């Protein structure tokens, strides 16, 4: 079930694990699956993906830009932990494939002269 944008559930690590399935062999979302962050031409939504929640806490005026990399990974590393309260995850919406339940994070990176829609497949083993 997809939620309207104003009613997005704030997910913590445990709720995120429960909301999505591990990547599977699914032709519906196969071309969207990437271990690390990938730039997309725009946001990906219905009917490809259904929105299930957010990691952005609306009670915070400005979520932290601090990152979490205890194993020495870097921001866009495919093995970087999905740390729900750290950047960039704390600014993401959570989506999943309506066919297999594979989870995806969407993040909009915006600079002075550009916007970059990024998508990352959620590996439940990397959620911390």
Mind explaining what this structure looks like?
- The chain is mostly beta strands.
- It has one domain.
- It has one helix and five strands; from the N terminus they run H-E-E-E-E-E.
- A five-stranded antiparallel sheet has the order 1-5-4-3-2, with no helix packed on it.
- A hairpin with a 4-residue loop joins strand 4 (103-110) and strand 5 (115-121).
- The longest helix has 7 residues, at 13-19.
- The two termini are 25 Å apart.
The tally of structural domains comes to 1
Describe the sheet with the most strands. 5 strands, antiparallel
Oligomer: single chain
Contiguous uncertain segments of 5+ residues: none
Q: Termini, distance in Å?
A: 25 Å
In summary, what is this structure?
This protein has one helix and five strands, in the order αβββββ. The chain is mainly beta.
Sum up the structure in keywords:
single chain; mainly beta; 128 residues; 21% strand; five-stranded antiparallel beta sheet
Question: Secondary-structure map with pairings?
Answer:
Blueprint: H1 13-19, E1 38-40, E2 50-54, E3 93-96, E4 103-110, E5 115-121
Antiparallel strand pairs: 1-5, 2-3, 3-4, 4-5
